[in-house]
Write a structure and sequence with these properties.
- Helices cover 19% and strands 22% of the residues.
- A hairpin with a 5-residue loop joins strand 2 and strand 3.
- It is built from 3 helices and 6 strands; from the N terminus they run H-H-E-E-E-E-E-E-H.
- It has a domain of 111 residues: Roll (SH3 type barrels), CATH 2.30.30.
- The longest helix is centred in the first third of the chain and has 22 residues.
- Strands 4-3-2-1-6-5 form a 6-stranded mixed β-sheet.
- It starts with a helix and ends in a 13-residue tail after the last helix.
- It is of the alpha+beta class.
Length: 160
């Protein structure tokens, strides 16, 4: 009998405590949804892999990672430099604002060994609205300067 009374008391007490929690309404997020990409927004996933060129239109690397702070601001980019198929590739990080974004495709990019005439490009902070992201970025440095820059180390590398 004592066991039944104790058990009944636990069930009733639990239901009284759970009642207010179950009666709470969900948090409303009405008005916080985004329904489309604006012309001033880029798709972050499309920036990964984007080619980086020097001022003479030589390809010097590509974006491997975006460094985003806890407020959602892109602080920097990690650029993969050199190597072949990932072998001997070096990671270098630079501030996001050091890149000049080009939204229109250049007619003739030079490879690091090519010698095409540099095309005229238009730079802009606006995206190519048909793609939602820039075509490439330009950095005021050379591939050799990037190869000689300090290596970037990821936070996860510190545990190794």
């Amino acid at each position: 009998m004592k066991t039944t009374t104790l058990f009944s008391g636990i069930i009733i007490g639990s239901s009284l405590l759970a009642g207010p929690a179950l009666a709470q309404s969900p948090v409303s997020v009405k008005g916080q949804f985004m329904t489309s990409q604006s012309s001033s927004e880029w798709l972050g996933s499309k920036l990964i892999g984007l080619n980086i060129y020097d001022e003479k239109n030589n390809k010097i690397g590509s974006i491997d990672q975006l460094l985003v702070d806890r407020n959602g601001v892109i602080e920097g980019v990690v650029i993969g430099v050199g190597g072949f198929l990932g072998v001997d590739k070096k990671d270098v990080a630079l501030p996001f604002k050091s890149l000049r974004w080009v939204s229109q495709q250049a007619a003739n990019h030079k490879s690091t060994t090519g010698s095409n005439t540099p095309p005229e490009t238009s730079s802009s902070t606006a995206t190519d609205s048909s793609k939602g992201y820039p075509d490439h970025a330009v950095l005021n440095t050379t591939k050799d300067q990037l190869k000689n820059a300090p290596n970037f180390h990821y936070a996860s590398d510190k545990d190794k």
